[in-house]
Write a structure and sequence with these properties.
Strand content: 5-15%
Radius of gyration: 23 Å
CATH architecture of the largest domain: 3-Layer(aba) Sandwich
Number of domains: 3
Structural class: alpha/beta
CATH superfamily of the largest domain: Vaccinia Virus protein VP39
Number of helices: 22
Number of strands: 12
Helix content: 40-55%
Largest sheet: 8 strands, mixed
Shape: globular
Distance between the termini: 66 Å
Amino acid sequence: MRPGARLKAAVEVLTDILERHRPAAEALADWGRAHRFAGSADRAAIGNLVYDVLRRRLSLSARMGEDTPRALVLAAAPTAFAMAPEAVARLADGSPHALEPLSEAERAGLSRELGADAPDHVKGDYPAWLAPSFTRAFGARAPVEGAALARRAPVDLRVNTLKASREKVLRALARCRPEPTPLSPVGVRLPVPEGPARAPNVEAEPGHGKGWFEVQDEGSQIAALMAGAAPRLQVLDICAGAGGKTLAMAAAMQNTGQIYAYDEHRVRLRPIFERLRRAGVRNAQVIDAGEEDRLRALGPRFDAVLVDAPCTGSGVWRRRPDAKWRVKPSSLAERQAEQRRVLSLARMLVKPGGRLTYVTCSVLPEENDDMVSWLLETFPDLRLKPYAESWRASFGAEPPASADGAERTLLLTPASHGTDGFFIATLERAD
């Protein structure tokens, strides 16, 4: 496909997403099935452009002076296609499979900078109703933190130390220009794809099939490493999902002790079985989805319980940009209710002297600090442990500053740490 045809295709896909309120991945997949002549490079370029629009929808709209799919795609195209604005304008020449020529207003918008007087939520590309939450979390840095959540993300991998070393994985993926992650000692990072380039399909690499590594953001790796899993302990991952943190903790336990994995959603939990086999994990037991009675029957036996709670996902907007425009105040209230329920269950399963680690992939204080305050008020036998203590024990180094300035809990963000947004709080139950 010519670049002009890619531009027009992106407008078609974005129109489908915005007018029919469809998930971006679903709309892009349907477009690809209906246009089988489009090659993988074409689909990647179109997908990059569509996702770039969704990441920066508010700032793009402010520059163009309108919020139509055409205007948004044009505004995002210079970066997404690695072209000058004038070159993008020439792609819209009115020929078959191309957009109609640009108006003068559109040409001006392509080169316009976002005004310094733009509202913080526009500069940071987050929903207006979340502006108070961002300001509460980050103060004057709210637009900077929001803008970092609106950029493309690298591909992060966690080395499975049961089967490989970081050096071995770096050598195996040398053609992808990998680098060690700056914070996680078991992480490897592949650079952010620029322009229309695709991120490498690392799950097709032989090393992935051999269980040498898993795709996992560095922030998620850090959360798993700070959970306190160690050899010969009894550990529980109570919201295991597809098992990324279960695998990380099992490796930290060196296949000793016992780790239980549970999630109430069957579809989310289903991939964990293949991943455990591929990783060579032998100390894990999976409790079938929805069998909460079986989980409760285990009682307060666990040295470490990890709660990676259901949340709005504001910390992973780089990877799921359409999600930030779908979240509503009612969604936040629903997630808070789920968080309180799962934390109450988790507290029952921590043994005296044990550790409860609360994690979200959210940057919103309502899901983070407020939930920790609720925990401490509801369960007086819990004590909040300063994150610096857990960091030093896990990494043997001084910790970074939390993005929100907190001293007892840790908020990781793209702007401050180069990770996805992750909140980590460690609580200990009194003996």
